[in-house]
Amino acid sequence: MVIHDTVAGRGVPITYLFTNDLSSRPLLGWFRSLSSIGLNPQRFTIDRSLPEDNAIIQVWPSCSIQHCIWHVMRVWMQNLQSKVHGSIGRTPAQAKAHIRPHLKALMYEKNRERFYNLLNTFITEFSHSQPEFITYFKTYYVDMWDGKACERWNVSYQPEVFHAMQTNNYVESWHNQLKSCYLKRKRMHRLDVLVEVLVEEVAFDIKQEVSRLSVNVGRMGALERRFRVNEIKAEKEKSLPSPSTIIRLLDEEYLVESFANNTNNTAYNVKAQNSQIISCTCPYFQQHLFPCKHMFYIELHDPSVTVRPQINTQHTWGESSSTTATTIQQEQQPQNGPKQQLSDAINKLASKTRDLKRRIDRTMINNNNEENSIALLQQINNMTANVTDLSSNLDNILSLPPNTNFDTQ
Ligand SMILES: [Zn+2]
Q1: Domain match, 234 and 87 both
Q2: What is the CA(293)–ligand 1 centre distance, in A?
Q3: Residue ranges of the SWIM-type domain (predicted)?
Q4: d(CA 357, CA 334)
Q5: What's the CA-to-centroid distance between 157 and ligand 1, angstroms?
Q6: Which domain-ending residue is among 293, 319, 345?
Q7: Same domain membership, residue 302 and residue 229
Q8: If you measure from the C-alpha of residue 4 to the centroid of ligand 1, how many angstroms do you get, rounded to a whole number?
Q9: What is the per-residue pLDDT across 317-328, written as a single tens digit (0 to 9) for each?
Q10: Distance 259 CA to ligand 1 centre (A)
Q11: Non-local CB neighbours of 201 within 8 Å, separated by 6+ positions
Q12: Per-residue pLDDT reduced to its tens digit, 202-260
């Protein structure tokens, strides 16, 4: 499963399922376990796959699902070939050529009202001359999923923030990266090797990238550029002679007057949670699920809340699961206690050694460096001995939790 990570500004894999069973059963188990740790996705883009669609609806009934429109269009064109026949005044080829632009117009109509008008006209116009194709089209692309089938392929249901995902581009580019960088284009792989690559190397690289971008080291990420666009709009508004007014409704809830040209007295409700501004009721935010100018406007007036993800909470835009997961983890142990400090220090050590392992795996040793490598070997052996000492010293202060805390197998 790949999400659009707003910090990295690209698609990153968050969870994996290996299966050779193509039914919805393994998917259901996978989704239920993700749901139980707090994953609550708002949207999914999938290939046109019925088992996936069914499993998503069962676990997350209110989640909206989009099918990759390239896949949908391809299936339409295949069925057009077999189900559209010659009609009065048209040869089969002419009939097909006549329907094709109608299908494209339907898929790409961005205005919802115009879309439904087009759809009704299309069905009425062709139901007599092309009954086979229209029956197929109505059954699978209009009436299916309790009449919500159109939401899965018409672009008006695919908000701009997900446009890059509408063709599953992120998944494609992630697959390429996995094959060329991590698996080095080898074909045969043992499952345990693949799991090791995914949980060690891939996860390590993504965390490095995200933490580098979070502290704004290196280039300005794609995300930061998008933030700045809306932040600048908020700054402009604030500098006006009579800027938009803000009313604080509750501790973390604000009412913002719509910006310039506010002729009809519109106001939007902006909410924060744990000092993180999380939502606005304006059309921009509702469509893009991305911080709008109103949210930045609140931040300008109330520095106690922020729009950009705070590093310690790692709020990611458009996906709330990771916040939930971190909270759960943190509640189990008091922060900054001795256990936490030890755990942090050991994690740091582990990440440094993982880094060394990755470097040695990916590089070659220059010739004529025998002496140096003997010295390095000695250094590594000393460190390994130190770690063994550390392990026995840890025994002095650590005790196992009571049996009730063990996971049942
Ligand atoms: Zn807004």
Answers
A1: no
A2: 6
A3: 268-303
A4: 32
A5: 20
A6: 319
A7: yes
A8: 21
A9: 543 333 333 333
A10: 10
A11: 182, 358
A12: 888 888 777 776 665 555 667 777 888 899 899 888 888 888 888 888 888 999 988 87
